[in-house]
Amino acid sequence: MQAILSLLSLSLVLVSVVQAQHAGIIEPHTSTEESGCHQSLGEGFENVQIETSDIRLHEQLFEQMLHAPAVQRLDHPQTDYLRTYCYRGILIVIRQDLRTPRPTGWVQLNFIVSDVAHVQQELESASQTLNEKERQQVARFRMKRDVMRGQRKVDRLEVYGPEGFLIGFDQPH
């Protein structure tokens, strides 16, 4: 009888988890260590959080173009949607408040790369998975040659994402 009650309890727990996942409350996710991102255990940098009025555009940017691993996807009905991605070792949290959606504003992430032309080629190739209208909403590219960044000259690729979100890739000379 004890074994039957234990199995029944376990079944109820599993059914609850599956129902929560199906409802979007809990979704499976990759650990930050598996995806190359590390959370701070003490003091220090943890992540970048970006507010948006349309999370779908950011999902297309991070998932289809940047191929950033999704670390977490949470949907809190009538509250917010959260998407966490690991991109180049940085946790980036995208949040859409369903009660008061806010456009992103201006957020800029900058990376140093060894071959900016290769990055441009990869991103432009990935952007071909989107139709022209989506591509214009999700990402636009601009290459700048021999620009000063700090105390050095670089070739710079700017990827303009949704709502004022920009990722810059600098290749020092």
Task: State the main characteristics.
4-stranded mixed β-sheet; 173 residues; disordered N terminus; 2,3-Dihydroxybiphenyl 1,2-Dioxygenase, domain 1; Signal recognition particle alu RNA binding heterodimer, srp9/1; alpha/beta; globular
Fold topology:
Blueprint: H1 2-22, E1 48-51, H2 55-65, E2 70-76, E3 80-87, E4 90-97, E5 107-112, H3 116-127, H4 132-138, E6 140-149, E7 152-160, E8 165-172
Parallel strand pairs: 1-4, 5-8
Antiparallel strand pairs: 2-3, 3-4, 6-7, 7-8
Could you describe the 3D structure shown?
The chain is α/β, with parallel strands linked by helices and 173 residues long. It folds into two domains: 20-97, 2,3-Dihydroxybiphenyl 1,2-Dioxygenase, domain 1, CATH 3.10.180; 107-172, Signal recognition particle alu RNA binding heterodimer, srp9/1. The protein is 29% helix and 35% strand. It is built from four helices and eight strands. The protein has helices at residues 2-22, 55-65, 116-127, 132-138; strands at residues 48-51, 70-76, 80-87, 90-97, 107-112, 140-149, 152-160, 165-172. The strands form two sheets. It has a four-stranded mixed sheet, covered by helices on one side. The protein has a four-stranded mixed sheet with strand order 5-8-7-6. Strand 3 and strand 4 form a beta hairpin. It is globular. Residues 1-34 have low confidence and may be disordered.
